[in-house]
Predict the 3D structure of the following.
Amino acid sequence: MNKWVWLLLGVSCWMAAGFALCGPGQGQASPSAAPPAPPKRIVSMAPDLTEILFALGLDKEIVGVSQYSDYPPAAKEKPSVGSFWQPNIESIVAAKPDLVVASTTVGFTQQKRLAMRLARMGYNNLTLRLETIEQLFEAIEQIGQATGRRQQADEVVRDIKSKLQKLSSQVGAGKKVKVLWVVQREPLRVAGRDTFVNEMIGLAGGENATGRTVQIYPPIGAEQVIASGAEVIIEPDMGQQDLKAQQESAFRYWSRFENLPAAINKRIYVIPGGAVSRLGPRLYEGIETIAKCLRPHLFES
Amino acid sequence: MRAETMDQLLRPRKLIVTTALALGVLLIVMLACSLVGSEDISLKAALSSPGAIPGANPDHEIFMRVRLPRIVLACLVGAALACSGVIFQALLRNPLADPYILGISSGAGLGAIFAVVAGLNWTLWGRSPVAVLAFAGALGTVWLVWFIGGLTGKFHVTGLLLAGVVVNAFFSAVIMFLTSTAKSDQVYSTIFWLMGNMAEEDFLVLWVGTGCVVGGIIALFFISPQLNALSFGAEDARSMGVNVVKTRTIAFAVAAGITAIAVSLSGLIGFVGLVVPHAVRLVFGPDHRLMIPLSAIVGAIFLVVADTLARTIIAPAQLPVGVVTAIVGGPVFLILLVKHSRKMGWLR
């Protein structure tokens, strides 16, 4: 069994050498870039972050965006650095960024790992959590601070807040409209209570027809649809689909629920997804769109 | 064919020369693949000094800290999966066997998804909870299957296989339960993991991984003569003086160990462990002393090439490498099968 002893010895030596050379706490501290003031080359790792950066007037500083960063239109012209799910670290490094903005929403281990890797390589990065409207305002302020655009950030936030205030007085404190927010039809999936969509519906003078659920975007059955008593059904379009065609198919699909108020009154709306599927500076536009669906008569004039 | 005649078939010189040649090919492939990527880099800039601040010499950073680690990782995972495929095919005497057949995949998947769903947030030597729990899940499952297989009789191969299939199905069901009750956005990050995904790793992780995988492959090479005997069946092997229980235990433990390491490094990459051993056997013959080192090297080459395709085809986006191994591996294997099986005539 001599060779086995040698093998064990060899592997042990190899491991020991590894831990001695680059064990925890050694060789990890790359020379960190001096915090540049303010950054000149910014890479955005998520579409919503791209929107915030553009809203702060950082068009020139952005040198890379994640795939599907499609708003504002200028974002499409920026070089892509891989998708949100699968960031391409090679393209990020090649863009020579001095600030990488990433999103660490729960469960997205890819972005967290990316941030860790970049930090270890000495790149400056800012990771943000974007799940609630409150966090959106915080994120805008944080990005403003990191990019030397505090003033613009304050303005953007103030603008959204004042518009929202105006909307809430316009909508009034009347009865809340029950809304079923459909993300996907087959299988049927709707927005639950722990979503920013839920908040948006509330601000637009509505109420989520779905109760508390385990999942964020719960799949539901016909029984729950009927029980929800939804007065309005909203389907954001997902991407390139033809709005009109989707509207027609929505009427067809929902007509099977004969006793659902939304189906009886034909209050089924297919709306453009951009502003409502993403938590960004277009928040007000999104909420206004929803408010128009809930109380069309208020906006007719 | 008896073991004595097989001794004559393989001279040490042939083994050394073939292995050295294969290693040479591997090195060339590694070098070639390290020069391909979504960004064009120059080798000269890549090999010069990194520069004082990050971003001063992006070529160097891309080459040394992004591409090379990833290529080394692909080598390790490919070698580990291919070798353990050889072992499982030999021990279970089943051409359909692959490293995942005894439930390693679902056990590892269960661990990984549990880590994501539970929202664990710590690191162990730079490894994420997903990797650590996947490793633990893989080893735990193999032990469970081994234990159940033992209960069915004196390591009856059929009992072991059935235990593996059932445990696999059960854990898959648990995985589906967890994913369907998970918050929807958590599920996405596990989907990529389940499809097999390469990422750049720390130096230490690669170093330790190399030690374990290379050590494991050498250990398997040590028992390759006994494996040759075992492939005739347990009874024949025993009559040739092979300690069947001991050989099987060592082979299973080592193969499961290196598979668990591979899975925890890169998720579930299919096809390598099934196709590479068959391809090597078709071309070089069924002698395990040659098959183990060659499968390791061919597996490494295969996965390095597949991963290079995965990160370049739709650049700057990337494909999960498991998609590429299946799409590329399938047709290549079929060609080999048709071309060589008639010539060799041993597949009958």
